[in-house]
Amino acid sequence: MADTTSDLAPVDFRTEPARYRHWKLTFDGPVATLAMDVREDAGLRPGYELKLNSYDLGVDIELYDAVQRLRFEHPEVGAVIVTSGKERIFCAGANIRMLGQSSHGFKVNFCKFTNETRNALEEASAESRQTYLCMVNGPCAGGGYELALATEWIVMADDGNTAVSLPEVPLLAVLPGTGGLTRLVDKRRVRRDRADFFCTTEEGVKGRRAVEWGLVDEVVPRSRLEEAVKQRARELAAKSDRPRHGKGIVLTPLERTLDPDRVTYAYVTCAIDRRRGLAEITVAGPPSAPPADAAGVGAAGAGFWPLALARELDDLILHLRTNEPQIGVWVLRTTGRADLVEAYDRLLLDHAGDWLVREVRLYLKRTFKRIDVSSRSVFALIEPGSCFAGTLLELALAADRSFMLDGTRPDDPKRPATIRLTAANFGAYPMINGLTRLASRFLAEPGRVDDLKGRTGQDLDAAAAAAAGLVTFTPDEIDWEDEVRLALEARTAFSPDALTGMEASLRFGGPETLETKIFGRLSAWQNWIFQRPNAVGPKGALQLYGTGERSDFDRRRA
Amino acid sequence: MADTTSDLAPVDFRTEPARYRHWKLTFDGPVATLAMDVREDAGLRPGYELKLNSYDLGVDIELYDAVQRLRFEHPEVGAVIVTSGKERIFCAGANIRMLGQSSHGFKVNFCKFTNETRNALEEASAESRQTYLCMVNGPCAGGGYELALATEWIVMADDGNTAVSLPEVPLLAVLPGTGGLTRLVDKRRVRRDRADFFCTTEEGVKGRRAVEWGLVDEVVPRSRLEEAVKQRARELAAKSDRPRHGKGIVLTPLERTLDPDRVTYAYVTCAIDRRRGLAEITVAGPPSAPPADAAGVGAAGAGFWPLALARELDDLILHLRTNEPQIGVWVLRTTGRADLVEAYDRLLLDHAGDWLVREVRLYLKRTFKRIDVSSRSVFALIEPGSCFAGTLLELALAADRSFMLDGTRPDDPKRPATIRLTAANFGAYPMINGLTRLASRFLAEPGRVDDLKGRTGQDLDAAAAAAAGLVTFTPDEIDWEDEVRLALEARTAFSPDALTGMEASLRFGGPETLETKIFGRLSAWQNWIFQRPNAVGPKGALQLYGTGERSDFDRRRA
Question: Does an H or E element contain A234, and which?
Answer without folding.
Answer: helix A222-238
